[in-house]
Design a protein that fits this description.
Elements: E1 8-15, H1 18-23, H2 27-40, E2 44-52, H3 63-70, E3 78-81, H4 84-87, H5 92-104, E4 108-111, E5 121-122, E6 135-136, H6 140-170, E7 182-189, E8 192-199, H7 203-216, H8 221-230, E9 238-241, E10 249-253, H9 260-267, E11 275-276, E12 286-287, H10 296-303, E13 307-311, E14 317-321, H11 326-329, E15 354-359, E16 365-371, E17 378-381, H12 382-394, H13 400-448, H14 452-471
Parallel strand pairs: 1-2, 1-3, 3-4
Antiparallel strand pairs: 5-6, 7-8, 9-10, 11-12, 13-14, 15-16, 16-17
Helix pairs in contact: 3-5, 7-8, 7-10, 13-14
Length: 472
């Protein structure tokens, strides 16, 4: 046996979630306990491994630390943990193979509570013989019971937590990460302190604008996306953590401009209209206890039949999807060559006329409106029909009061759009002010930096900020 002063160890620290590690059951507390345990026994901890994720997964987080111990060049003798449930919550079926890997590498697993014992008993020792079946660990049963207890505890915790989240989701509360356009807020309700969604101070403006612009139907999706990007739309920034150490932030993702595909996906989410439909609602629409960013009527109008929210006779919400792609439904409705195609009806069957051009023997094309494949054939020259429609329309006399009513509606809509534009201008001014503040902070940092690499990145950030201000 090695002397205590020569023992080298690996210490594994684990909390179940990133939130626990940063807000609650911190790794620091486990580290202090392990360090005190090692110091009193003269053990040198060569490497710490911190895992902020569940130990009930099929791929065990501690495997990385075990692999480190298996490398003989690292010279590890002990693997120290706080307790068996910090090693794994997968039960004895997972615990035994993990521990066996360490034993094969000549590394002893140790917990600070003393449940695991390195002592071995040979039932044939008095006869001077030893077999694989005659040698056993007296603490094996206790270790198995502790591993199973950890697994049972995990099941109980998840049953309580997930069960409660499913129930509150079905009651109309929000249990997941806030989607774009919303922010989570906890309020006192009749069901206790529960989470609801509230409009995000900046993101909600963009979501409302995309629904409104699409419902007005005078801009294409590409034009809407360009307009929102010009106003400063950026996807939400998120921290990307290290795969092996969730306490470390390795990158920041997001902050990208809006794309047509992203916008179309966002607009199909019923939560924007205050309706939640997901796995925990059994894929049935549930009216949230909070308001959406847009009304159901605006949601339906903006999505143009691709997804519709309705209320049935029993007052239950239902969501239906278009059975035929919208582009097929509208295909050929409007063309420059045949302005009245599908608008003027056939005089014989009263079905909408189609339009096409046939090629004559001399190579000349003859455009015409026609109706066919309905038990009869009708065809009329394009210029002749369009001239007839124009003469027919000229005969209409619109009373002045009707014109006045129309102009009043036009004025109301114009004022409404001007008000909306003013709101957008104010929002843009706020973004410009925020960017200028950020630019000033960046300049102040540049004054005190000396590292060339850091200066380069800060100058790139400043250039990016200036481009955003110019675009706004």
């Amino acid at each position: 046996m090695l002397e205590k002063s020569k023992l080298s160890a690996v210490a594994a620290i684990r909390v179940s979630t990133t939130k626990q590690g940063t807000d609650g059951d911190s790794p620091e507390a486990q580290r202090e306990q392990i360090e005190r345990f090692a110091q009193t026994r003269g053990i040198h901890i060569k490497q710490y491994f911190v895992f902020l994720e569940s130990a009930s997964k099929e791929q065990q987080p501690v495997q990385q630390a075990i692999d480190y111990c298996k490398d003989a060049s690292n010279g590890i003798n002990l693997f120290i943990i706080k307790s068996i449930d910090r090693f794994t919550r997968g039960g004895s079926d997972v615990y035994n193979p993990l521990k066996q890997q360490l034993e094969t590498a000549g590394v002893s697993l140790v917990d600070i509570y003393g449940v695991i014992s390195s002592k071995k008993v040979n039932t044939l020792d008095h006869l001077g013989f030893e077999y694989s079946w005659s040698s056993y660990s007296p603490s094996k049963k206790s270790e198995i019971l502790e591993a199973e207890r950890g697994k049972d505890e995990l099941r109980d915790i998840l049953s309580r937590v997930i069960g409660a989240e499913i129930r509150y989701t079905q009651l109309g509360y929000w249990m997941r990460k806030a989607p774009y356009g919303f922010t989570s807020e906890k309020l006192d309700t009749k069901h206790g302190k529960r989470t609801i969604l509230q409009p995000h101070p900046t993101e909600a403006i963009f979501v409302k604008s995309m629904y409104k612009l699409r419902a007005e139907n005078y801009l294409t999706d590409h034009q809407i996306v360009d307009k929102l990007n010009e106003q400063g739309f950026r996807t939400r920034k998120q921290n990307r953590r290290s795969k092996h150490d969730k306490t470390k932030i390795v990158a920041q993702v997001g902050g990208e401009e809006l794309t047509v595909k992203t916008m179309q996906k966002m607009m199909l989410k019923p939560i924007n209209a205050g309706i939640n439909m997901e796995k925990w609602t059994d894929n049935k629409p549930v009216k949230s206890v909070f308001d959406g960013l847009v009304s159901i009527a605006l949601f339906n109008k903006a999505n143009r039949g691709k997804k519709i929210i309705e209320v049935d006779d029993q007052g239950e919400y239902i969501i239906t999807k278009a059975t035929t792609p919208q582009n097929i439904l509208n295909r050929g409705t409007k063309t420059k060559e045949f302005a009245y195609r599908r608008f003027v009806l056939c005089p014989e069957c009263e079905r909408p006329l189609l339009g096409s051009a046939t090629k004559g023997r001399n190579g000349k094309y003859y455009p015409a409106y026609h109706c066919s494949n309905h038990g009869h054939y009708f065809r009329v020259n394009r210029d002749e029909l369009e001239e007839g429609v124009n003469e027919f329309v000229k005969q209409f006399i619109v009373p002045q009061e009707r014109i006045d009513d129309l102009m009043t509606l036009v004025r109301m809509e114009y004022d409404k759009r001007c008000s909306s534009e003013q709101t957008e201008i104010e929002s843009i001014d706020e973004k410009i002010a925020a960017l200028r503040t950020e630019a000033e902070m960046t300049v102040n940092k540049l004054k005190i930096l000396t590292n060339d690499t850091a200066l380069k990145y800060m100058e790139e950030d400043l250039d990016r900020i200036e481009k955003q201000i110019t675009a706004l």
